[in-house]
Every structure is written in structure tokens, then in C-alpha cells.
Amino acid sequence: MATTNKLRSSPSLIFLSLALLFHFYLCKGDLLLNYYSESCPNAEDIIRQEVTDLYNKHGNTAVSWVRNLFHDCMVKSCDASLLLETVNGIESEQASERSFGMRNFKYVSTIKEALEKECPLTVSCADIVALSARDGIVMLGGQRIEMKTGRRDSKESYANFVEESLPNHNDSITLVLSRFQSIGLDVEGIVALLGAHSVGRTHCTNLVQRLYPTVDPTLDPQYAEYLKGRCPTPNPDPKAVLYARNDRETPMILDNMYYKNLLSHKGLLIVDQQLASDPTTYPYVKKFATDNGYFQDQFAKAVLLLSENNPLTRDDGEIRKDCRYVNSI
């Protein structure tokens, strides 16, 4: 009995017990690697398979997943608020001008449906946004990023915060840097993250101001002629599918060709070309242009940091059954 009382009153044992309880409490709510290992062991495999299948059917989905991560996580939190549709007083973030050209949201439902069949109301839409971006990056030739999971879904949209959170393609490089630095990215990480412009395409609406009425003098003349061929009018119909590839050489490969193009005055958007002309960002453009491996490393780090911006965890938010609507609707 005396031995038992001695053990119970041992300060070291009490401290160890409290430390373990505290650690458990933190880990229970925070993002973790393999968060679904017990509740839905096949979750990440299911997402990866769906991303792969969708890529094989519609290659452009991989680019959409990367853009979804950017648009979701930069606005308040990585919480899938981006996916909410306009209904019952909720204004969708997708309606913002900053979201112009985004698509393939319907295929998020394809991924969610596969998860719901396996593990109902278990895997959040926010984690789908993060993991589909991770797997999409691999489909585009980028590194596999070990992402933590355990995000929960927002019960509200933040449409009113989109324009003040997301930089525009016409914004000054100073403003662009400020927006990204507000979530913890440094200058090198920001330049790396903008390397996502290595893939995909840009609608003419977003670039004609560099072509008309006169050509932007920072544009390579031959490249400007190519862009005019793609965008032959200064007033393109925003509903028309008129666009130019961000990178003509490797348009669906995430690589450092983007930075090589910037050094050759072939940046597609104003914000792109500013990276090569601003003394703060230019050294990183030059470094990435000469070392693709280094770019890939820094891009992966930046994406990981972005994916962990202010997530909802523990008892915050919810796990949506349908990513388009909060559960109460």
C-alpha cells in the first residue's frame, strides 16, 4: 500500500502523465501526418486514385487542384470555403472577379462521393482541396509533398474578403509580396509559389492590357506577336475561350521554364514580368532559372506552408457531406 501511494505521489510520474495528456490533447486537434489512418485508412489512396483518373480523362484538372489550394488557403483559412455555392444567403467566393477562369469544381464532388462511400462524414472537403493539389502537382511532374491532414470545413463563405486577400495579376510586386507575406511566406517562397504559372493558361481578358493599344515595352517583340495572335482584339468576350499558354515549351509540366521565360521577357502577366525586374525578387528568378531541382524544393516548401494556413481543427467547423453546401442546408 505504501509503495502504491509513493508511486501515486511521485512528482516525476505526475509530470510525465500530465505531459502525455497535454501532448495527446494537442495532437488530437492539430494537423497530423496520416490523420485518417484509423478513421478512414484508404482516404489518401482514394483521393490519389480519383485525381489520377480525372487527370487521364481531363488533363487540365491537375492545374485546377493547384489553383484551388491557392484560392482557398489565401482567403482566411484552408477550410474549403471556396467550394461553397451561392445558396440560402451564402455568396460564393467563386463569384469574385479574382476567381475568373476557375473551373472543374464539379469534379471535387466526384472525389468526395468516392470518400463518402468508403467513410461517410469523415474526410473533410478542406483536406480534399489540399491532397488533390498535392497529387495534382505530382501529375504535373512536381515533387510529392508530405502533407498533414485533419482540416475541417468552414460553415461560411468569405466572399467579402476575396479581393483583399488574393493578389491580382495587375497588382504591383510590392502588394503581391505583402499579401503572401501576411501568411508567413518569405520572398523566396513567394517567387517559388508563383512558379505554378509554369502550367495552365491565361484568358485573354487578363493580358490584353499588355498588348493594346500599344505593346508593353517589357515584352519580347516576337512573344508579343504570338500573344496578339492568340488574343486578336483588345476587348475579348470573357465567355469566349480565348487564352494563351503560360509556358509554350512545357505547358503541362511544373518546371523552371517559367523563370527562363521571365529572363527572356516572356512573362505572360504583369505580375510575372515584375518578378524579373524587381531587385528584391530578381535574384530568386535567376537562381530558379538555372536550377530546376532547387526550384522544385522551394516550391514544395511554399505549397506546404500555404496548405497549413490557419486551418480549422478540433471542434471548429464541420465535415461537409457535400462540399458545395454546409450540412444545415
UniProtKB/TrEMBL annotation:
Its cofactor is Ca(2+); heme b. The active site is at 71 (proton acceptor). Residues 1-29 form the signal peptide. Coiled coil: none annotated. Its EC number is 1.11.1.7. Its main location: secreted. Pfam families: peroxidase. Binds 2 calcium ions per subunit. Substrate binds at residue 167. Ca(2+) 1 binds at residues 72, 75, 79, 81, 93. Removal of H(2)O(2), oxidation of toxic reductants, biosynthesis and degradation of lignin, suberization, auxin catabolism, response to environmental stresses such as wounding, pathogen attack and oxidative stress. These functions might be dependent on each isozyme/isoform in each plant tissue. This is Peroxidase. It comes from Quercus lobata. The gene is LOC115954025.
